[in-house]
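pasting for ref
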Amino acid sequence: MSRTNEMGDWINRHAEAIYQVRGGPYMPTRQYVSTYRKNKVYVYLFPESPAEIRLPPLAGSIKKAQLLNGKPVTVNQKPDGLYINLSALSRDSVATVIALTLDRSAPSLKPIRPFTSSGALSYGQQARASSALGSFLHDASAVVDDNPNTAWKPGRRTDVDFNAYYGRNVHYMSDSVMNLFQHTGWLEVNLGKSQSISRIAVSELVYNKSKIKDFTIQYQKAGRWVTLVRDTNMGNWSKDIRPVRAQRFRLVINDSSGYPGVREFQLFGTPRPEQTNNG
């Protein structure tokens, strides 16, 4: 069977989980994605995923778990996650789809982030920015998702008339167009409570030679912002610092060119004694 025919056959067998559904509630990863409809969540496990996998907890109770052909699937709901075991079943070469029937409406579930891959205390925390290019993939939440494929980008300037440029023959990489967007701005991460931070990592999204030329990292103390470090070359930047305890941290872009972007703004806690290598 050709790859095209194989995919067509797979789609036909899994139409229930493909058509007239919405994406979610699980945010996609390299190992799984999901869709939902009514009181069902369809989890797609790719061939790269293990035969027994742990997903973040799912709200509500699962009344039934099965493949779309009706074969039951072993699923165990625990406070620390949803455990799915396919070791006794044949895996699909495209994706193995499990239908989870819930005790509630699936559209009522909130988006579920994957487990952190970095261990950063900032992962999934509340983030906001001075401006943003869009409300999806390029907003402030993109810097706390452990996903290098998303990035925060500063938004449009508020002191220029964008309408004056519509219909004009100007290139998007021209100075006149790039100057319509912000080249300074700030990102703020709220850890929810005061925590001790000993390492900070930020990564830059470089697009057509864009560059963050000057940036500052700050923390809030007694209502004012205190500078921890300032640098002129971001790229993939990280720094161990003397531990500082705070709830809110900021990354401030003081100067940039092109269309600047930040992939991740990660805050790491103070290592426990057993994590420290004194050798």
